[in-house]
Amino acid sequence: NVYGATVTDSGLDETVGTVDGYAVSLSFVTNSTFSGLDLSWTGPEKVGTGARIWGGSNNTFEGITASNRENGIWLVNTYSDMTIQDNVLSDNVNAIVAKEHGIRNSYLRNDLSNADTYSLFINEDAEFQLAGNDFSNSWIGLALANVYGATVTDSGLDETVGTVDGYAVSLSFVTNSTFSGLDLSWTGPEK
User: Fold this and answer.
1) Which of 130, 132, 170, 135 is closest to 151 using CA atoms?
2) Which of 123, 129, 138, 159 is nearest to 89 (CA)?
3) What's the rounded Cα separation, in Å, for the pair 127 and 151?
4) Distances (CA, A) of 116 to 96, 111, 112, 125, 141
5) 120 CB contacts (<8 Å, ≥6 apart)?
6) What digits encode the pLDDT tens for the residues 81-101?
7) Alpha helix (H) ranges present in the chain?
8) Residues facing 96 on adjacent strands
9) What is the DSSP string of 53-84?
10) pLDDT tens digits for 19-29?
């Protein structure tokens, strides 16, 4: 358990790109900032996870690059009030996977493009905030599962959701939620 840490690119060297499991794994870290890290995999295939966050609260992840991974950022267990902003999490199998008991997390201005599966998967967090994320050329843009009472508006999904190859928005076991003003039209060259 860590409280109040600041981790920047000067704290990690380029060998973190050779870690085929979790480049960074955090357990119950609170009130900390992680910025400017390059957690990209340097091998030939998409392997491992850039950052795995197991529990914790009130952390900020910004300016992180995690590409060529199975998961760019993976949040699991009980976590809350995370701010994930201004990151480059493109060209992964999944850009961000937020599973199991999250609440009040913010996903702001992230490059989540070219995801083989999910740009952003959110499970069990009805109070999430979205703004300015790039979902372009991914198979699934925004996926929500096991969510009760969420609100998604056009300000949360930008125009890049129109270039999502598969599902612009995917809902599984989502109830009593509101979706308004969304333009989910395909904007690519073919149907």
Assistant:
1) 130
2) 138
3) 8
4) 12, 14, 11, 23, 10
5) 95, 96, 98, 107, 112, 130, 133, 135, 141, 142, 143
6) 999 999 999 999 999 999 988
7) none
8) 73, 120
9) EEEEES-EEES-B--SSSEEEEEEEEEES-EE
10) 889 999 999 99
Q: Enter the tokens of residue 66.
A: 């995690």
Give the pTM: 0.93
Q: Return all residues near 189 (Cβ < 8 A) that are at least 6 apart.
A: none
Query: Distance between CA 43 and CA 22 in Å, rounded?
Result: 14
Tokens 């913010």 belong to 106
Q: How far apart are CA 110 and CA 94, in angstroms?
A: 13
Q: State the greatest distance between any 2 C-alpha atoms of the chain, in Å, as a whole number.
A: 50
CB 41 within 8 A of CB 69: yes
Using DSSP's 3-state secondary structure scheme, residue 57 falls into: strand
The number of helix segments (H) and strand segments (E) in the chain equals 0, 17
Q: Which amino acid is at 116?
A: D
Q: Residue 58, SS3?
A: coil
